[in-house]
Amino acid sequence: MLGAPTAEWIAGDRQVRVASRWWSGSMAAVGVLAAVSAGVFWLVHSAIIDDSYITLSYARNVALHGHWGLIPQRTSNTATSPLNVLLLAGFTVVLRHPVWALAAVFVAANVVLGLTLRATARALGLREWGVWAAWLVVLGNPLLLSAVGLEVTLTAAVLGALLAAAVLRRPWLFGLCAGLAVLTRIDLAVIVLVVFAAAAGLWRGWWKVLLGGVAVALPWFAFSWRVLGSAVPDTLVIKTQQKAWGSYQFGNGPLLYLRSYPAATVLAFLPALLGVLALVVVVATRARRRLVLPAALGAAGVVHYLAYTALGVPPYHWYYAPSLVCLSVFLALAVSAAHPATLALVAVPIVGQVAFDAHHGLPWRQAAITTNWATPAQYATLGSQLAALTGGRPVHAGGEIGAIAYFCDCAVVDGFSDRAELLPIIDNVIDKASPAARALLELNYRFLDRATPPLDTPFTLTHTQNPAPGDPAWPASSSWHGPGAPVDGYYTLTHTR
């Protein structure tokens, strides 16, 4: 157990009195959180998706070469989460292996989530089992586990800390958490704003919130702008230029995954849907005022979902992580404040998730929800053999390159790794933008390197159903057969010159 509540909730605007500091916790609790998290990481460590390997490649290059880029030969800015890369790089310096570093970050982030949820529950006088329920319903979510290596776990940790800071009315701490949130994903600013709007106890110290956030986030954005050529990652341009997959975009994307991965999708989204229902009940009945800030977090998840729907971006499964985390945490905390009979609303999804996660494999060999064209093992085999076949010379690859580049540790080239290939896309976005947006984009790319030519690539890696005789070929198969996915086939290497 994490210990009995030692906080008193006083209605109105009076201060919440907390008998112990928000980060305090028994060593037994920390040990349980860490041990369970480590076991879950072992479960998924062989099922890391392609985009996660992009992050791991960045972390390895930063840690071992002091170089910000997907490949050692080029500086790039396609890591969506600078904080995730920097944390992984820091652990890689010590552990000397990015996957071990990922394990450390995964465990640490989940421990932080558990402790900050504990701080929130103690301050609001909520039942202790609500802490465990909120933690478990996030930890076991099949969709979130299908994006380990990306910033989903870090997102949960910083949002947990943000909620605790709001509940405890700590403006400096809230500002620190806000800065960390936008360094985790810049779109988390939406959630920060919604929670702050509901946190009346922070309003008088708004300047502390602002200064704290700026102090944390500004140094990175200034460095990125001047040194990397853009304050925000290039993925903001890449992803917003991509539209629907067939008839599916972000808003109706869960229906696509329901078609391809029905059990995993139901278990991933069910807590969030129940969270929306709980949010309606709380708002409609003006239920317990102590749920105002947890409800704000849930509402922020809804706002985030609506914002992404309005943008019309593709339904990449990890894009749903902020909304799922916010609404799932709110559901568990709300249920813990209600009649014990409502426990089933969160217990049933948790039991279902645990059963599914165990049944999917011990350990997993492929993510429960994936849009990759090949399995992690197939990409690992291809990448491991590629450097010898090319003699270390650059190879151009269309589509997915994260795992291939990671296991090859060589120059695998496309727009994610060689920024020169992105220049036409960036210029096209700037040309088509409104005057105000164009001014912002031009400012963002003021220091962009436009002089370095693309890497010369004498080899090309392509996906095909019929490899040419004599060309090296590797099988590529996947459980994903939705829009944009090729029929199972082969990756083949061609020497073009």
From TrEMBL:
Residues 462-481 are annotated as: Disordered. The keyword DNA-binding does not apply. Keywords: Membrane, Transmembrane, Transmembrane helix. The keyword Phosphoprotein does not apply. The chain crosses the membrane at residues 22-44, 99-121, 133-166, 172-197, 209-228, 261-284, 291-311. It comes from the Bacteria. This is DUF2029 domain-containing protein. It comes from Amycolatopsis cynarae.
